From TrEMBL:
<dbReference type="InterPro" id="IPR001041">
    <property type="entry name" value="2Fe-2S_ferredoxin-type"/>
</dbReference>
<keyword id="KW-0479">Metal-binding</keyword>
<keyword id="KW-0411">Iron-sulfur</keyword>
<dbReference type="Pfam" id="PF00111">
    <property type="entry name" value="Fer2"/>
</dbReference>
<dbReference type="InterPro" id="IPR002888">
    <property type="entry name" value="2Fe-2S-bd"/>
</dbReference>
<dbReference type="GO" id="GO:0016903">
    <property type="term" value="F:oxidoreductase activity, acting on the aldehyde or oxo group of donors"/>
</dbReference>
<dbReference type="InterPro" id="IPR012675">
    <property type="entry name" value="Beta-grasp_dom_sf"/>
</dbReference>
<dbReference type="InterPro" id="IPR036010">
    <property type="entry name" value="2Fe-2S_ferredoxin-like_sf"/>
</dbReference>
<dbReference type="InterPro" id="IPR006058">
    <property type="entry name" value="2Fe2S_fd_BS"/>
</dbReference>
<dbReference type="GO" id="GO:0051537">
    <property type="term" value="F:2 iron, 2 sulfur cluster binding"/>
</dbReference>
<protein>
    <submittedName>
        <fullName>2Fe-2S iron-sulfur cluster binding domain-containing protein</fullName>
    </submittedName>
</protein>
<feature type="region of interest" description="Disordered">
    <location>
        <begin position="136"/>
        <end position="158"/>
    </location>
</feature>
<dbReference type="InterPro" id="IPR036884">
    <property type="entry name" value="2Fe-2S-bd_dom_sf"/>
</dbReference>
<dbReference type="Pfam" id="PF01799">
    <property type="entry name" value="Fer2_2"/>
</dbReference>
<dbReference type="InterPro" id="IPR052914">
    <property type="entry name" value="Aldehyde_Oxdr_Iron-Sulfur"/>
</dbReference>
<keyword id="KW-0560">Oxidoreductase</keyword>
<feature type="compositionally biased region" description="Pro residues">
    <location>
        <begin position="149"/>
        <end position="158"/>
    </location>
</feature>
Length: 189
């Protein structure tokens, strides 16, 4: 009778240590490889500003800044954000002074229930940086004779249409969009 050998199963680790630098503070965590930045922020670090809305990257309630770029934290794995600088809505103010975008949202009633507001504010800050860096959107005029398009790499003027297009990934079930656009217009250069 022949003996059958079973292959040796190699068990790979299912968790890793990561360092998440959130709002200027480094946090060393051991997380499951499937843990998103959103879950690490909310469940491990008690940062409840980013909200879990759709959990599929479609609503923008979880938007945070990674570096200067806005990011849906429900789609970014914590292991991929190791050592990255993450800014949540809680880290935007300067002490008791709100960030200018936060102040504009207050002044223009850019919120109703407030659930989407942290993501809206972080997204607005990220999109302002994108426009300042010259990144075009879908509605930015194409370069050409007489098009009115900014030269490549130069800041993109933020018209209401530009703001609406750039903020289209952030949903507000209450419909505060006109006030959100007005708030962003106020702080846009």
């Amino acid at each position: 009778m022949a003996t059958i050998s079973t292959p040796t199963v190699q068990h790979r680790p299912t968790s890793s240590e990561v360092t998440l630098r959130v709002n200027g503070v480094s946090h060393r965590l051991t997380v499951d490889h499937r843990t998103t930045v959103l879950d690490a922020l909310r469940e491990h670090l008690a940062h409840t500003g980013p909200k879990k809305g759709c959990d599929h990257g479609q609503c923008g309630a979880c938007t945070v800044l990674v570096g200067r770029r806005r990011t849906n934290s429900c789609l970014l794995l914590a292991v991929a954000a190791d050592s990255e600088e993450i800014t949540t809505v809680e880290g935007l103010s300067d002490g008791e002074q709100p960030h200018p975008v936060q102040r504009a949202f207050l002044d223009h009633d850019g919120f109703q229930c407030g659930y989407c507001t942290p993501g809206q504010v972080c997204s607005a800050i990220g999109m302002l940086a994108e426009a300042a860096d010259g990144h075009p959107s879908h509605v930015t005029p194409l370069p050409g004779a007489g098009s009115g398009a900014p030269p490549p790499g130069s800041p993109v003027p933020l018209t209401p249409a530009e703001i609406r297009e750039r903020m289209s990934g952030n949903l507000c079930r209450c419909g505060a969009y006109p006030n959100i656009v007005a708030a962003i217009e106020e702080v846009a250069p």
